[in-house]
Amino acid sequence: MPAESTVPREDAGAKRATEPREELKTPEQETTRALHRVVWALAWPSVVTNLFQTINSIQDRFFVGHLGPDALAAAGLGGQLMFVLFGIAMSISIGTTALVARSKGAGDLPQARMAANQSLWLAIMSSVVCLAIALPIRGLAVHVMRINPSATEMCIQYLSITLLGIPALFLMMVLGSTYRGIGDMVTPLKVTIATNIVHLAGNWLLIFGNWGFPKMGLAGGGLAFAASQYVGAATYLILLRRSSLRGVTRESNSLSMEWARRILKIGIPALWQNMSRIFSLLAFTSVLARSPESTIGVAALTIGMTSESIAFMPGFGFSMAASTLTGQSLGAKNPRRAERAAEVAMHQGVIVMVIMGIVFYVFARPFALLFTHDLQVVDLTVRYLQIAAVAEPFLGLGMILTGALNGAGYTQAPAWASVITMWAVRLPLAYALIWLAHLGAVGAWWAMTTSTVLSGVAAWALFRWGKWKQVKV
After folding, report:
1. CA torsion, points 420, 426, 427, 432, in degrees to nearest 10?
2. Confidence class of residue 19 from pLDDT cuts 50, 70 and 90?
3. Helices 166-181 and 109-145, interaxial angle, to 10°?
4. How far, CA to CA in Å, does 53 sit from each of 50, 159, 350, 359?
5. Burial class of residue 144 (count of CB atoms within 10 Å of its CB; 0-12, 13-18, 19+)
6. Per-residue pLDDT tens for 183-196?
7. What single-letter DSSP state applies at residue 423?
8. How far is Cα 92 from Cα 100, in angstroms, rounded to an integer?
9. pTM (2 decimals)?
10. Are the C-beta atoms of residues 348 and 396 closer than 8 Å to each other?
11. What is the DSSP code string of 139-162?
């Protein structure tokens, strides 16, 4: 499709709140108040999107919680193993956002379409490879974690079905990043609503066997998840036909090695970062499973992280806004605006995260009781949420500034920072506090909080260093 035919529609679409026309003004032309409005216009749809994703996760744990602590532990471990594959998809999507945003900022829509097309090809190929590897080794991966036999069997059954949604998950991640790269945060919100409806209905019908559907237990939750991912991917592709990047799927019918190199140059360090977090969480869960609280501790971690994910919403939302604006501003050769946009996103996001920390500290017990009435699990979950509340501002700081760095394509240094804080701080400190200080699971919670604080400080230091402004993608 000729580039000229897409420009008028793109210009008209730029008037939407999600893509303000003043976004490429120089620092002298753009007031701080105007930049706050631009950031908020991009952030709020992402915050709401993450709200729905969090509600989706919470209702998932709510249904599973009625199956008992073993099912909760199995779902929590299964979710962490799925995060490994989620991290691979995210690494591709980070490269997608950076390249699409740079091209959009430079006013080169054909280049943006090609970046999206090549990212889709890379996502499809990667998902097939991941599925081919993950399915045969799922049993071994679960057994290594050494949770009790009942939870182990549930987890294997859950993964057997959930893994079938991986190809659609990869497509959803890349298509969502494509939209965010051009500054459209509303379409991912629409798709998230659609997937949540399918997931919620599927859980209600298949976990408990309502309306004559088979009663599948935890496996039914896995099937509901997989189905929701395919609905989401199909919805993205349908809506893509009406976007400024329509025709993306026809740009090329194969993966170019040059494009793959460009995407992976950004994505591989992001993959290290994601894998560092995910595998360190798996290792952390393994250490926790061997603590005096054992399965109760793993169940409390599952509920605590699900509840705490509400606090992630503003962090993710402002992180996405920072990523988009940083990439577009650098594409427009405006590094000063990129810096200012990231700072504004940081200020807005951290204020909200402080409020979320207070909420979690005060309402920790009601949150815990939403998922289980096992008093031992509830007590440990309350301690988790109240200790984690201390780190919420630093969590927001780290998420938002890392988003800005990723949007610039500067992913190597944040990856190393993640490796250090997770592996050199969190795990050794967790072991020491659990066994040497005899704090049990509570010691593990303090180790998580300490590493989160350090991670936020590291992201701030890397941002202030400023090398991200010189990255070429």
Report:
1. 130
2. very low
3. 140
4. 5, 20, 20, 19
5. exposed
6. 999 999 999 999 99
7. I
8. 12
9. 0.79
10. no
11. HHHHHHH---HHHHHHHHHHHHHH
